[in-house]
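Sanity check record (used in CI):
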Amino acid sequence: METEEDQSLADLLRDRFRLSTISIAEDEAKANNMEVSETVVACVADLAFKYAEQLAKDLELFAQHAGRKSANMEDVILAAHRNEHLAVSLRSCSNELKAKEPQSERKRKKASKKEDKLRVSTSVVDIPD
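Expected output for Centromere protein S:
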């Protein structure tokens, strides 16, 4: 059950998200010499927030299904499967980020997992009675 403090924090987050969305929509309209009614801007803000909520729920479920506690880039790409253009953009962004990551860090991450397994297997000590 959600506490009053949690609900207050959720309301604050929702309001800030909507204000940011409204600001972006107004800036884009201005940059393109367009006028957008307040009703349309409010609808766009609500839709964006609902989309973000659903995305967060999907990411949580994908991570849980994979046995993880946190979402990763693959979960984000999978969540975008309904929007092919977005999924392609996300894959491209992911590949660019992977390419920019130094090779030594990638190897170190993999090595650390192996080291963790070794530590687990070698950390068991049999103590005789």
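The chain has a mean pLDDT of 82. If this sentence no longer matches the regenerated tokens, the check is flagged for review.
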